[in-house]
């Protein structure tokens, strides 16, 4: 093959990868925007139909638990080579579920069973999509570009957090069914983008999707992740499901990602609910919390975009330790906040700092994980973060009820101080595993 043909082939491959990155970003951002738009008005719809706050909480809790339970199961076929079909069909099912909600709401007052069934189906399908999508970045970009692409995806999520609730509220004011129609369209867009990807997203295939290893190494990883076919079927299933957890347990970097992400995300959720309790006690309505969320989303967007450049200048290990210590006084200061503007400012700084570390750790985790274990490893990390986020409101409510509305912030500051001390102690090892 001539040098000219080789250069032309490389340029074509780069254009194909760049196109896949744009398509995957559009799928992720569209999905997030639609979910935010419908999610913010679903409680309003249920309350407007005459259901109690307990029912609203039950729907939210059951749907969250369903996603946490299903993600590890869906991760196995994704890692076995069915990532792209699983993503496409799960997004399609989600679109159909939200289309059903749209029709039911537009027709009048849908029964609770119908709404709950559609929401659960959408949550199941979304959990499957998210589990399958995990690790896609490692398949379509070179390792050196992972931080930049991960930062772009995080920025898309933060942008959806800013625009989604406002869009959902405006559509709900026009017609109750419109936010759910927007969510259905967003899932359809995501399915179309996934279908248009040029890569088949199979981890055992030859390099070209940017997995960071050559084709032979991919096949080796696939064999290492596969269970012994001679073993008992129940043991094979257990090994398949537990492969991601086993990798996390043996990898210092992945253990770090799990500990830091689960702790900090649980803390921010607990702080948010502490702010809700304080503002409600002070007579503030839903508007101030919207202000807090908007400021937090905007700050998170800036932090996500700046993360790769700042990490490149400071170094990942130093950035991790510095940011973790900076979060401690911010959490403590929230114990003394009493107005929406102060809460917005403090949450804004908090959400500005979090992505600086989160983006770096996520991109390092993608590079650390073999292609054949991307989805299962991500499911373990996601379940840990989701579990802490689900537990945080309960603990915040108990602290606020028994001690006072400032208690959640005090407890969170203590938890962050312990995390910061831990990262400082192992800083020398952090420099090695984040290099």
How would you explain this protein's 3D organization?
The protein has helices at 3-39, 42-48, 53-107, 112-133, 136-140, 146-174, 178-196, 215-225, 233-250, 252-281, 286-314, 316-334, 340-368, 374-402, 407-425, 427-433. Helix 3 (53-107) packs across helix 7 (178-196) and helix 9 (233-250) crosses helix 14 (374-402). It is 84% helix and 0% strand. It is globular and about 60 Å long. It starts with a helix and ends with a helix. The protein is mainly alpha-helical. It has 16 helices and no strands. Residues 204-225 have low confidence and may be disordered. The chain folds into 2 domains: 14-200, Up-down Bundle (Growth Hormone, Chain: A); 244-433, Growth Hormone, Chain: A.
Main attributes of the structure:
mainly alpha; Growth Hormone, Chain: A; 16 helices; 84% helix; 435 residues; 2 domains
- The residue-averaged pLDDT reads 78
What is the CATH class designation of the largest domain? Mainly Alpha
Instruction: Give start-end ranges of low-pLDDT stretches.
Output: 204-225
Number of helices: 16
CATH fold naming of the largest domain: Growth Hormone, Chain: A
Write the element-wise H/E pattern from the N-terminal end onward.
HHHHHHHHHHHHHHHH
Principal-axis shape equals: globular
Task: Give the N-to-C terminal Cα separation.
Answer: 37 Å
State the secondary-structure class. mainly alpha
In the CATH hierarchy, what is the superfamily of the largest domain? MFS general substrate transporter like domains
The biggest sheet amounts to: none
Strand content: under 5%
**Tally of DSSP β-strands:** 0
Tell me the helix content: over 70%
């Amino acid at each position: 093959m001539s040098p000219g043909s080789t250069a032309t082939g490389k340029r074509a491959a780069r254009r194909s990868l760049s196109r896949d990155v744009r398509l995957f970003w559009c799928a992720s951002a569209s999905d997030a925007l639609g979910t935010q738009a419908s999610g913010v008005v679903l409680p309003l719809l249920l309350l407007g139909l005459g259901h109690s706050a307990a029912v609203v909480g039950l729907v939210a809790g059951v749907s969250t638990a369903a996603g946490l339970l299903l993600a590890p199961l869906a991760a196995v076929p994704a890692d076995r080579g069915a990532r792209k079909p699983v993503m496409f069909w799960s997004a399609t099912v989600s679109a159909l579920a939200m289309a059903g909600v749209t029709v039911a709401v537009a027709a009048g007052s849908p029964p609770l069973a119908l709404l709950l069934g559609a929401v659960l189906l959408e949550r199941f399908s979304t959990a499957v999509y998210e589990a399958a999508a995990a690790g896609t970045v490692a398949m379509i970009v070179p390792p050196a570009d992972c931080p930049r692409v991960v930062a772009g995806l995080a920025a898309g999520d933060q942008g959806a957090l800013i625009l989604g609730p406002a869009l959902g509220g405006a559509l709900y004011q026009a017609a109750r069914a419109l936010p759910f129609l927007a969510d259905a369209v967003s899932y359809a867009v995501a399915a179309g983008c996934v279908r248009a990807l040029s890569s088949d997203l199979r981890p055992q295939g030859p390099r070209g999707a940017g997995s960071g290893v050559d084709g032979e190494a991919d096949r080796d990883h696939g064999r290492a992740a596969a269970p012994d076919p001679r073993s008992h079927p129940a043991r094979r299933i257990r090994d398949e499901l537990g492969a991601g957890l086993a990798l996390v347990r043996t990898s210092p970097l992945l253990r770090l990602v799990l500990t830091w992400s689960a702790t900090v995300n649980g803390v921010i959720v607990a702080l948010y609910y502490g702010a809700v309790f304080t503002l409600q006690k002070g007579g503030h309505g839903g508007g101030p919390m919207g202000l807090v969320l908007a400021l937090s989303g905007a700050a998170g967007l800036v932090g996500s975009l700046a993360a790769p450049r700042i990490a490149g200048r400071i170094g990942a290990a130093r950035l991790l330790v510095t940011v973790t210590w900076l979060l401690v006084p911010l959490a403590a200061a929230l114990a003394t906040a009493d107005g929406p503007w102060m809460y917005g400012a403090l949450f804004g700084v908090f959400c500005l700092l979090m992505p600086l570390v989160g983006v770096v750790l996520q991109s390092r985790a993608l590079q650390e994980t073999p292609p054949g274990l991307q989805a299962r490893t991500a499911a373990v990390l996601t379940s840990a973060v989701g579990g802490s986020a689900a537990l945080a409101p309960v603990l915040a409510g108990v602290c606020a009820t028994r001690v006072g509305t400032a208690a959640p912030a005090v407890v969170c500051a203590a938890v962050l101080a312990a995390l910061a001390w831990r990262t400082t102690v192992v800083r020398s090892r952090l420099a090695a595993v984040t290099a």
